[in-house]
Prior knowledge:
alpha+beta, globular
Amino acid sequence: MMTNLDRLLTILKEQADLIDQLNTRSNFQYKSTQRLVLDYGKPFLTQVKSPFKGKRKACFENCLKGLLRYPNLNYCEGFAISEDIDIAVSHAWLVNNDGELIDPTWIGERFKGSAYFGVVFTDDFVREIAQKTKCYGILDNDYMNEHQLKREGFPPHALLHKQAIDAQ
């Protein structure tokens, strides 16, 4: 039986492969956000209760505000899926220093068994992109930054201890 994480990774790989095939004009290093996240991301398997409840359908805003309110948490973006959702949803969540995920947006029975795959950003990079784009969210707003992430990948200062995250 396929787990939700298996489903999520399968969907992300299918989408990335399709975009790679269709996007023949781009000379970007990454033709899709899906491929970028697959190359840099990791699964988040352990979830703990959120210290606050965010607004519905406002994950990027909820997590940026959570980052500012709870300095011991880290901002993460990527894709998520639940048992009731059959698409890979662009999503944001928080991660504590133990690598446990905290989702202030997807709360309740409807989101039990959700799977998450994404990248953890440094606080400085989150603030830098928010100031530059004047929007919540990093990956979905890459176009406002001239597609820098798809063109070049993540700059060295963007990812929070990549080696430590890879080791988990």
